[in-house]
Design goal:
Layout (H helix, E strand, L loop, with lengths): L2 H5 L4 H16 L5 H8 L11 H10 L1 H11 L7 H8 L6 E3 H28 L3 H22 L8 H14 L3 H11 L7 H10 L4 E3 L4 E3 L2 H10 L6 H10 L2 H10 L8 H11 L3 H8 L7 H15 L11 H17 L7 H14 L3 H9 L9 H6 L4 H6 L3 H10 L8 H8 L3 H7 L1 H5 L3 H6 L9 H15 L6 H7 L8 E6 L2 E7 L6 E2 L2 H17 L3 E9 L1 E2 L1 H9 L5 E5 H12 L19 H8 L2
Parallel strand pairs: 5-7, 6-8, 7-9
Antiparallel strand pairs: 1-3, 2-3, 4-5
Helix pairs in contact: 3-4, 5-12, 7-10, 8-9, 8-10, 13-15, 14-15, 16-18, 17-18, 32-33
Length: 612
Amino acid sequence: MRVSDILNQVNTFEKNNFLRVVDQIISEKPTNYKKIETILSQIDGQIKNADNLSVESVFGLVSNEYEKCIRSDFQTTTNQLDILVDILIRDGNSLMSREWLLKLYDKEVKSIKAKVKDLKALLASGDDDRVRDYNIYRSCVEIAYLNDEANNRDKKVTKDEQSILNVLIEGLDLSHEEVKLINYSVISIAKLEIDELISLLVKSGVIFYSKKTHQIFVPDEIVGILRKIRGKEVPDKIYNRVLKALKPSQVNLVARKHNIEFKLSQEEKAKHIIAEGIQFSKLLLTGIHKPGTKKTEKKKAVVDLIEKQLKVSDRIGGASLEDKVGNFIIYLNEKDREENISISIHGYDKLLQDAKSSIKDFASTIRAEFEIQDSVPLDAESLLSHNLKPLDILYSLNDESIKLFCEQKNISTRGDEIKNILENYRDVKNLYLENYIHISNRDVNSLRSNNIGIKESELGMQYEALTKHIFEDLKLHVDETLKKKLNTAKDQIDILINLGNEEIIVVECKTKKDKKFSTYSSASRQIKAYKSLAENAKYKVVKTFIVAPTFTDDFINECGLDYDLNLSLITSEALIEIHKAFQVSALDEFPYKILLRDVLIDSSRVVKAISK
């Protein structure tokens, strides 16, 4: 969920800490201060009085400075912020209950203590080069943390000391997990109460917390920043996808370097590699290549991974190996941020239902993989609110489960099985309906990003067809036969709804690239011509409608003054909201008379009426 979505769900008090952090950054005149001033000047200059979308825009402009604030909080080595952030940045954990955070925290602390115990045993008995690296780093942490004691000061690692340790971490090529365990072998973990944990995160501006529902929200934008701070260049779900595409020999090279058990399966090794916090770029730059491999050979291996093993059809530029890897990381993150889910919401729900019935332990596998609490239903809406798309769910399953699912559902196993599954659940009608507003706005770019390949010249016809489907779903009789009978070569009614008793409703559909429909005179002439066609054939036109993206105020005013035409206006957004509400209502027939009152149809009033 984005910042603005979360701000819509929390009260003023629950926004305060986040707004205070942002306001503090603004007061120090950040890099984008002039742009921020322009946004805030439209109100009273105060971020606390800005609307939620404006707050989101301002936060985007101060994200670099916000990152610095959070990084400084990490300098306090005893506040356990690193443990908490490692929980929050895992896929699926950006939305959770208070109790679930406590459960994950307890589990994490217990795991760290067990691993620290094993690490200490390894440090005492091991004598290889990796253990030597661990001991060097641990000795430096001990000095940095304990040297304050001699000067009668509180023990801590200062900012300057941490900067030196960071250079050492880089030089010794230590993973995030290795660093964390070594640090906690020196600095013992004292478990904190759940309210302390939440208070720490709220005051830092990292989370929003609803006291009423005990719900914790972490905006997608902040998750991205926290991942960057922790050195996670891509989400774990994408990292896992790439590891699955690697050759076993490549995975073994990485595992051997970081003391990961050689006897484990490739899938288990992949989980350990991700848990170790091994940087994604280092994996591709050095980890998967044998010592002594030339740069040209490394680049070829990376290109093969992208184009052949991962089957990425988009061009990933980059003259050097480093550029290629850097651009690949940017590409993966941009794809993850896209709202496109490859199939419709309806198709996603059907896929989940079929997977539950066909794949053994499907629900428990998904809950364990993404740490989803039992109270959260495994449906499309819930998973998307946790930023989990169909691809993420499918790639979390093992190859055997995918093959079995394909066999049971008669899905081809030739080529890319996951791609074949998605294609099988690609419900075109629902996918187009979910993009109804983009079609009405003639927004070709958004449609392409959502896997809808359509020519701009076809958008008008597609909008008309979808509008017809919506009225049909409202259980109204869209009469194609009567429409053809009334239409002439010159005057072509878009949609005709037959109410019976020779009464009809006429609907005109208008797409508009600049969104607001404004040419009332030409539209009214069309509607009058259609009305004449019907009346000449002895049909009574009960109502006429224009459906369009939005209408200008002048258009609405002129429509309201034209009593003869009996015309009402429906925006694309209003019609789709009414459609969604009717689908879940208990009504067998849509009460169309509720649409006959207003000039501009108020969807909220209609939705309220049919939801009783």
